[in-house]
Amino acid sequence: MRASGIAQSGMNTGHKWIGWFGNFGGPTQKGITTYANSPWQLNPFAGMLRDFVFNGFRRVVTQLPYSGIPFALGYFIYTWGNKEFAYVNSKAGHLAGAGEHE
Predict the structure, then answer these.
(1) 75 part of a folded domain
(2) Per residue in 46-83, pLDDT tens?
(3) Which of 16, 79, 88, 102 is in Cβ range 3.0-4.6 Å of 93 for a Cys bridge?
(4) Which residues fall within 8 angstroms of residue 25, CB to CB, at 6 or more apart?
């Protein structure tokens, strides 16, 4: 038994199938030329290193004020914290902090 209004493919198409999305069966357009390159004939890495040396260096240098300063600040805070942690947990740190708890 077949439900009414549903075609054999299982899609509700109405009275007439006019084609899938973008393929409505009309006349083909004329005067449109398309070009394509085969992915097997392209070299995607051609000139990659040469382009990075000039263009990539320029991009990195222009971004240093935005990324270099926070990185340097974070690095110095990290190294200061490690030194402070090592000092507080050392014998000298325990002796220096012994008077604070009395």
Answers:
(1) yes
(2) 888 888 888 989 999 999 999 999 999 999 999 999 99
(3) 88
(4) 18, 19
